[in-house]
Amino acid sequence: MSLITGSPLGAQVAQNDGAVMNRVVPVQGAPASFADLTAQLQPAVVNIATRQRVEVQNNPFAGTPFAELFNRRQGNAQGGNNAQPQTREAQSLGSGFLISADGIVVTNNHVINPPDTRAKLESITVTLADGTEYEADVVGSDAASDLAVLKIRSNKTFPFVRFGDSAATRVGDWVVAIGNPFGLGGTVTAGIISAVYRNTGQGGAYDRYLQTDASINRGNSGGPLFDMRGNVIGINNAIFSPSGGSVGIGFAIPAEIAAPIVEKLRAGQEIQRGYLGVRLQPLDEDLALSLGLPKRRGELAQVVEETSPAARAGLRSGDILTKVNGKDVTADQTVSFLVANLQPGTTVPVEVLREGKRLAINVTLGKRPSEQELQAQVQNFDPDAEQPMAPGTSDQTIEQKLGMQVMPMSADIARSLGVPVETKGVVIAAVDPNGDAAAKGLRRGDIILSANYQPTASVEALLAQVTAASNERREAILLRVQRRNTPPAFIAVRLRS
């Protein structure tokens, strides 16, 4: 390794015919101290603690030949259908920050809604820098962007901070993170912006982060990432770490993405996003070589969902999407990101490469499904899997009235169930073992074709019939149900009050 000595600091430039270009001379050293900035900002940063109630399996032998024996020993000779579910308490810790004097707090959705979907949030405690504790309520949350807005239960006036312009952030800028790592409240770390608009490869509409080497650990989630002017330019969200601790690679949601969503949640507005209905794969080096295209430009349509906006517009599997609404598709600007930031109903031009020819196709975007529905579309549906009821993951009225959870039918689920892909209905995802549906023999994988003789091609259609039956004070609803390798049958299920 060669060693160059005697050179001045700063990047050097080539000389041509004796003309020397101007050098960029760096500011001398780091900030003398972050103390004054921290003193101003820290009062607006809060610690967030939550308590959840998690339903657990009260029969350790569920799904085995010993299940009935266990139930009998517990005094339930009916096989456990009357046994009450058991719960345990869970806790989570995170960070957040105040954005208004009346106690509005911003944090990550996963801080208050842990990935364990069986957890039901019971309480939120917000602790200020001076140690004062307050109860808080959820104003709104959004799983797709992993953002949540809380309101402190108090009429006091609180210190607060504002969002800055993350679009102006440059690699190398100083930043400060304040949060609650490992439950150690009021921890301050500093570093620089390592990358802007970093795509982590995890997929999703908002896989686009500021990367920083400011130390971020578990418990920093939801906390602010400040610039040197004291503005929030990012919300600390995740780390890359083989060990589970900080290795200098942290990710923050850029303020330019977070701020508009936070305002909508704060106003109680529904977050609506555009939707194409295409499963995409970035063009890696091998794909690009096989198609004669530059790498890191465009995405390959692996699957075009039937009846989706993309299918209706004429997009096909194998198309290379290169532009959306006039913007290039790149690793830092994915199709999912571009589409999700457009409103449903918007008609946008999509430039595709098909069999070597460039085409411009106008697509009228649909409404992006929930994260649970999207997850259900891409997962292989196993009708024989033991799937307990997970509160809050489907329509609550259907859960309460029918004692089951349902999901929309998709082509992949239809294939898993061995029925034609054009089958219209909703699929039972889980059944409450204590309900009448379970007593009538309904189970995961059954398809509800109609309710009270009305087709149920969607969850909303089933909900409408359940609501109508309840309003008419009916005690049961007539379902037409299809199971694999059996003809459809009518089954009456009692409605819970």
From TrEMBL:
Span of domain PDZ: 277-338, 406-485
Keyword Signal: yes
Pfam families: PDZ, PDZ_2, Trypsin_2
Subcellular localization: Periplasm
UniProt keywords, alphabetically: Hydrolase, Periplasm, Protease, Repeat, Serine protease, Signal, Stress response
Catalytic activity annotation: Acts on substrates that are at least partially unfolded. The cleavage site P1 residue is normally between a pair of hydrophobic residues, such as Val-|-Val
Residues annotated as signal peptide: none
UniProt GO molecular function: serine-type endopeptidase activity
Claim: Transcription is one of the keywords in the record: no
Residues passing through the membrane, by range: none
Location of the active site: 110 (charge relay system), 146 (charge relay system), 221 (charge relay system)
Gene Ontology process terms (BP): proteolysis
Primary enzyme class: hydrolase
SMART domains assigned: PDZ
Enzyme Commission number, as recorded: 3.4.21.107
Record-listed substrate binding positions: 110, 146, 219-221
Family to which this protein belongs: Belongs to the peptidase S1C family.
Protein known as: Probable periplasmic serine endoprotease DegP-like
Lineage: Bacteria, Pseudomonadati, Pseudomonadota, Alphaproteobacteria, Sphingomonadales
